[in-house]
Amino acid sequence: MINVTLTPLHYIYLIFIIIIIFAMVKKKDITLICILGIFLLGIAGTGSISKSTMGVFNSFVYATKELMPTIFIISIVTAMSNTLVASGINDEIVSPFKGIIKNYWVAYWVIGIVMMILSWFFWPSPAVALVGALFLPIAIKAGLPAMGVAISMNLFGHGIALSSDYIIQAAPKLTAGGAGIPIGDVITASIPLVITMGLVTTVVAFYYLRRDIKSGVLNNISKVEGSTSTSKDTMLISSKILRRILAILILVLFAVDIYIMYTAKLQGGDATALIGGTAVFVLSLVSIFTYKKNSLEKITDNLVKGLQFGFKIFGIVIPIAAFFYLGDSALNDIFGKILPQNSNGIVNDLGVALSNLVPMNSVVSASTITVVGAITGLDGSGFSGIPLVGSVARIFSTALGGGIATLTALGQIAGIWVGGGTIIPWAVIPVAAICGVDPFELAKKNVKPVIIGLVVTTIVAIFII
């Protein structure tokens, strides 16, 4: 049993989590709730109104710093995409796929599979920019709404690919380290669970998506104007040959990026930076051919519009992310060392406390490890709590006399599916921004499929144990 000390900070955080979930169910804005939560955590930890007030601002700054790379990649890709649409090059890029993606059924699965494969090699963040810019227009023409594209990219990329992480192996390395077992054991044990979770979640999501398309529900979901918006000055490059040459050049540039990411083993932020830098050069090159003598002004104008779009999207999320970042070690960074010395962060402490309260058998252990994994994902990272999940799995398996690899893999899947970018609203922002949909609506669309998937996957894990 892992010893953990719960303080008023833990209980305040837990109470606000419950309030936030309730408010989201009621479709209420949660910004003010998060601000009050940050302030009360500061009061409880420091006993100072002035420090707590400062902490609210500093938590916003902290969240902005953490989100800045994502804000910039979304802004730059949006600026590039709008320029490609205005020039007519975008139509040339997607034209080869028109023969394959003829209806929304095919669009959903093709986009998802491509997203999953790219995410295995490069992680979802850079894959989002590539897949979104390439497939979104043609998917919409095939009848798949932008929300459907977002759901597909989200579940296959941030769900299946990130939770399995078979190529880069960052996730299994963290959980295996916490459990004290080889990485290969976690990977092997995760295969049937990943397949179960992936199939159940994507099929259930498609069922609900198909129902919503037929009933017209998706037409009532508010969209955010972004990379899907079209310009009034379309086809500014009149020469079809020139458009095709530039389209091929752009595809080659991004293909070279993929090759460099693979050979140089670029991951996460480095891979995203490579895509972003390439997008800047593509934006500049296309602007020169599109706007000619006005290109210098238009490059700046499009970059500014892209940044305005990025900050417009993330502006509503920063206060929310600021609160949930406090669930990790950020609390000590913002308010000073106010957590107990043996604390691993509020969220992780709550997960440990839950695991200490339950009896040990295969059903309870598997169910608890799923809940613990999901709780550790509430900070929106997905990765911060999975070493703890591995440690808890080791405790449970000792009591059970086996099953450590399966429990570890199950906790890894739960933590990343919840926190890695399918449920937590601020974690789904990259996909939502590229597709021009509301991140909160996207998160709500994912909730039922992910919960059903976790229940079924937990049942399969119980039988394997």
UniProtKB/TrEMBL annotation:
It comes from Clostridium frigoris. The keyword Repeat does not apply. This is Transporter. The chain crosses the membrane at residues 6-25, 32-50, 70-89, 101-121, 127-144, 189-209, 241-262, 274-291, 303-326, 395-417, 423-440, 447-464. Keywords: Membrane, Transmembrane, Transmembrane helix.
